[in-house]
Structure of Shikimate kinase:
Amino acid sequence: MAPRAVIVGPPGSGKTTVGRLLAEALSVGFRDTDADVETRAGTSVSDIFSAHGEAAFRAMEEESVAVALAEHEGVLALGGGAVLSETTRALLAGHPVVFLAVGMAEGVRRTGMSSARPLLAGFNPRATYKALLDARLPIYREVATLEVDTDGSDPPAVAAEIARRLADLADDAAAPEPGP
Ligand SMILES: Nc1ncnc2c1ncn2[C@@H]1O[C@H](COP(=O)(O)OP(=O)(O)OP(=O)(O)O)[C@@H](O)[C@H]1O
Ligand SMILES: O=C(O)C1=C[C@@H](O)[C@@H](O)[C@H](O)C1
Ligand SMILES: [Mg+2]
């Protein structure tokens, strides 16, 4: 078995919030690789970054994503930077991957100055967020089966749109090939 949906996107795109709602709507479990890493490390993502550095976090994340992809049958939210790993991108092939898109202004508004997001905790979160979006947009699009714009839609509306589009994809996959 495999996840019903894997959610990717930048910090603040709503992977955790929307992923949970989508799991409820589909009556399946929800899992978040950031939480898995924290459980395995016994400490928070920001503590891992400050004590061991980003590379150590990425190694733990890569391993946690591989385990969760193999084990989890519900909705799986990945950490925002998990797709930076080529190994992870290869593992995502063939899974239904939903990219939650968000614009810079809204993404910065949602993430605020939270120190829980170590990559955005610097001097100029706006510039940092823009650089992150510019660098990652092609990568999110490369792995995604569906892209959903979350600007101007609240989390329940985003979850409902994903559920509808996943059902449409499943219908398309089940439809017989058109005749000659
Ligand atoms: N569509 C939305 N509209 C308005 N606010 C939203 C939306 N989606 C998420 N939020 C809010 O944005 C904040 C960040 O959401 P969330 O933690 O789910 O993002 P994330 O993608 O999981 O981020 P991270 O990569 O840091 O784990 C939360 O306060 C959440 O309530
Ligand atoms: O976008 C990122 O690189 C990150 C997002 C979060 O989910 C965490 O995985 C961590 O803060 C790094
Ligand atoms: Mg999250």
